[in-house]
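CORE FACILITY INTAKE
Project code: CF-77B
Contact: R.S. (postdoc)
Sample description: multi-component assembly, two entities in total
Requested service: structural model of the whole complex
Turnaround: standard
Below are the sequence entries exactly as provided by the requester. Do not edit them.
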Amino acid sequence: MTSPAKTELVTVNIDGKEIAVPKGTNVIEAARLVGVDVPHYCYHPKLSVVGNCRMCLVEMGMPAVDPATKAPVMDPATGCQKINWIPRPQIGCATNASPGLHIRTQTPQIRDCREGVMEFLLINHPLDCPICDQAGECKLQEQSTGYGRGYSRFVEQKNVKPKRTQLGPRVTLDDERCILCSRCIRFSKEIAKDDVLGFIDRGSYSTLTCYPGRKLENNYSLNTVDICPVGALTSTDFRFKMRVWFLKQTNSLDTESSVGANTVVWSREGVIYRITPRRNDAVNDTWMADSGRLLYKAVRAESRLTAKDSLAALLARAETILRLSPGLAAVVGSGQSSVEEQFLTRQLAHALNAPAYLVSRTAEGDGILVSADRNPNVRGALVTGLVSDLPQPYLDDLGEAIDRGDVRTVVSVGEDLMAAGLSATQLAKISVIQLGTQVCASSVAASVVIPTLTVFEKAGTMINQQFRLQRFAKAVAGPVGAFDDLEVLARLIAAAGGPAEPSDLAGVWTRLAAEIPALRGLSYAAVPETGVVLDASPWASLPFVEGESLHHRPALVAASA
Amino acid sequence: MNLKPETLARIDEVIPHYPSKRSATLPLLHLIQEDVGYIPQEAIEWVAARLELQPINVYEVVTFYPMFRQKPIGRRHVKVCRTLSCALLGAYRTCETFEREFGVRRGEVSADGEVTVDFVECLASCGTAPVVMIDDALHEKVDVARTQELSAQIRREAAARS
């Protein structure tokens, strides 16, 4: 929307600093590049520009030229070209870079403008910061410290508006806090394509509302909460749960699909309180789906698996089972495991001389940030060589092998074998060593269950639909009785009689960099926060299930277009 | 929507006058209010569908303009100007007299469904303040006595109709 043409660079001068920016870059973004903060509310880099909050006022000037000859007019005092300053302030968000543009943001006039705008914005704003969820991450609060007056000159009555409207199942609206920036309206219309929000009774009583009888219930509704610069839109789930300044932020990934939206996990003292999107212009911009924000509930779910026995005891039982029927084992890996875990799963299959399977999860993609492949890391399994072809939804081959008696033991790395198509009769014929985080039919039937960690309790990498290798970090510690996946896999490999494999991230990455051609020269620490795109050419001919989505065009679609 | 055939014809006629369909929102709302007497929610959705908009876009317009009504009004619409010149020359008294005469408060419909009294912004006849519009007719210099005359006339016309 506001992405400038990447061709032509123009030099602009902001607070005396010269910088070359792509032509058309707006002043807020250009100022950001020279470290100048232009306060704003309604402007958002990924939405259309409306210019209705007036907070980003700046002084603007252009180099003077003689109207007749077009010759530059020089200023004898400085020896430079004279700058003609426009006497009135301009809004930065809708002012685009042009050659020689001069901007001043630190003059008394601009300070006065900001203070004036703040006073108007605060006229009808309630002073309920102490009970407001936005406090601590509120732009209005932030700018009030810089440009607020400290006391109010307003003697009239404040407007009274609805205080707790349920806009939808996940979003609660406090209309009195709304400063009418319209970001949520533009987001709903432009990104979520669900135009249900609007201002009614425009004027002194402008009120944000949802069309009567409709709801803000699309799967992206919580992004309106993220972009709301004040506490008007709040997440019904997070509301009144925790003050944001107590929360630790950990960079993570949305594991609900192969889009791999970048996220921040907010936790305190080992408890996760919310997940919000993290900006990555190549993957998810600044958005994520509502469904991905609830995944942390799995951490403390009723169905969470934990063991009373020590890991050594569990592994000893697993080793007994593996020794019982040598050469008759199979390994079921997972597209939900990290790249590192998939590599060790492959090594486990090698050590057992067993075939490795993967289970696919597909559903319709929404064309935005939830793709058709609901496994976040199928490409990791391809890259690490765990499997060489795309997974099937059901383990029919494995079922046949069990029926033939070729497989007596199955190691399942986090997959529910029943859900993956094995029958109860087939499960009864085999011994299952189940790794996983949640109780499932497979864990109930298993001979040994080794509880492992959720994505929030460990670190690693995943490869998304763009073959972009992305990192996730450990946000909270795992519960007692759940064990680190890498350690479990490394010790299982040892139990299976395989070579010693490292059980820590750095160690596995040394092996990955040496063994896997696509990951040569990489290390966990060297993966940038925005990820690194791998060479996908070895898998170019595979019919991946993803359709088009934000920042992704499948190779086959692109080729046929 | 149960619109009269002639309203539908005028709607079809007016839409192509504009370069983009959404520009026809206001004329369509006027035509519907002329026909139905007010803008029911159903009409908002009908206009939105007709102009390829979302209902919220039309709803925003309806709530912005005071002349669009979202509820039915009485058979006679009495609009008393409240802006400066009229206010100075007794518009408040005029409005209160109408309210007493018909036993309604401003913005409401009288019990018999006959009259709605509204206290509105400038009717653009400041020289002859205070002014009142009854349906489409402008009445000038409406003091208390004239208010009572006009009220009596409305009641007479209502009686004649029944």
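Facility notes:
- The two ends of chain A are 24 Å apart (CA to CA).
- Chain A has three domains: 9-106, 128-141+151-244, 311-560.
Invoice: internal transfer
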